[in-house]
Design brief:
This protein has about 375 residues and is an alpha+beta fold. The protein has 10 helices and 7 strands.
Length: about 375
């Protein structure tokens, strides 16, 4: 078993298979790639790294990426010589244990200042030894084949402030506080300064049950937070009809907003399209979903993911966003999306009416 981080060194002797592979331009990746047809997924990290780096300079690491051995040495030094690094390695160990078929719901909590939703990406630029050591361990901890990846949690800024004023203690999360679960996708160390870059995907929500560690960061036992199942058409026809109507209301508002944006030249969502790929992928209109989707959502999960695909692009305040993360009712979240979209539609409709009235006045004066 090849060792790619301090976590592998500490797990030496355990009957675990490492989950390490590399993508192009990346030093290490937390998710193992599935075996290709006729091949095997059990390929060592070393072979991946050499194959990726050979594209550049005959075995040297890609530009600005620290090579494997130097990265291991850096993490080991931070974990053994710095107070934050030593504390981080001790604190994160409980988040990295696994039992066959059982998901570990103990999460290291990162206080993030931005509002995030499922389908979003969380990218971090880390320099503090505690975070460099902890995220390196999470990204490279050994796992049994088939075990879920180790994740970390992002606290909600409306509940846990992202920054602590000087002289005050950090505000710990309370039981019942909600946040987002993130799966580490890519990590690499900079070769010019002691800095780690990490990207992750938001894959779910959590609710805190109890805090089990506070130094050098918060660690909590959590439970998974998911929406209530889709109402059954026979057992709860009214609930099913309300969900379907709210979905179509949101979809129609998106299309109306798209039409008004083209008419007025306004860009309510910046440079991106009004109806983006995720909105189409989880659309309530089957004909709008991409036919090339290799992993289409199940009928039960599609309405919830449609609500997140829309909500993540709305400019909600912290309290509205917190309500959306807290609720386990998809219909309520869709109603929040519809209200925000309706405001945008009303605004663009007023802009279009004013510009139309102005154009008519100009045409009238020119004809006189």
């Amino acid at each position: 078993m090849s060792c790619t981080s301090l976590a592998f060194t500490q797990a030496a002797g355990a009957d675990l298979a490492p989950s390490a592979c590399a993508r192009r331009f990346r030093r290490r990746v937390a998710r193992p790639r599935p075996a290709r047809r006729g091949g095997s997924a059990d390929v060592s990290t070393r072979s991946f790294v050499v194959a990726a780096s050979d594209r550049f300079s005959g075995g040297a690491p890609p530009p600005n990426r620290l090579d494997e051995q130097a990265a291991r040495d850096r993490v080991y030094r931070l974990a053994s010589e710095t107070t934050g690094g030593r504390g981080a390695m001790e604190a994160v160990q409980g988040c990295l244990s696994s039992m066959p078929g059982i998901t570990n719901h103990r999460l290291m909590l990162f206080r993030h200042p931005s509002l995030k939703c499922p389908l979003d990406t969380v990218a971090l630029n880390l320099v503090e030894p505690r975070w460099v050591v902890a995220f390196d361990a999470i990204a490279n901890a050994p796992r049994r084949p088939g075990d879920p990846p180790f994740c970390f949690g992002v606290t909600h800024p409306a509940l846990v402030p992202a920054k602590t004023p000087p002289g005050e203690d950090a505000v710990p999360p309370k039981p019942g506080d909600v946040g987002l679960v993130c799966r580490v996708d890519d990590v690499y160390h900079d070769n010019k300064e002691e800095r780690m870059y990490m990207t992750s995907a938001v894959v779910g929500r959590f609710a805190v049950e109890r805090v089990v560690g506070e130094h050098p960061f918060f660690v909590a036992e959590t439970r998974r937070l998911v929406d209530e199942p889709m109402p059954d058409a026979m057992a709860d026809p009214e609930g099913r009809r309300a969900l379907e109507e709210e979905e179509m209301r949101v979809w129609d508002l998106l299309r109306t907003l798209e039409t008004l944006a083209k008419k007025t030249g306004e860009r309510p969502f910046g440079d991106g399209p009004i109806v983006d790929y995720d909105a189409k992928r989880f659309s309530p209109v089957a004909s709008e979903r991409p036919v090339w989707d290799e992993h289409p959502p199940t009928p039960d999960e599609r309405p919830e993911m449609f609500s997140w695909a829309v909500l993540r692009r709305l400019n909600l305040d912290q309290r509205q966003h917190l309500d959306a993360v807290r609720t386990t009712y998809t219909t309520a979240r869709l109603a929040l999306c519809a209200d925000a979209l309706q405001e945008g539609v009303d605004y663009l409709a007023a802009v279009a009416a004013l510009r139309g009235a102005g154009g008519e006045e100009e045409r009238g004066s020119s004809s006189e």
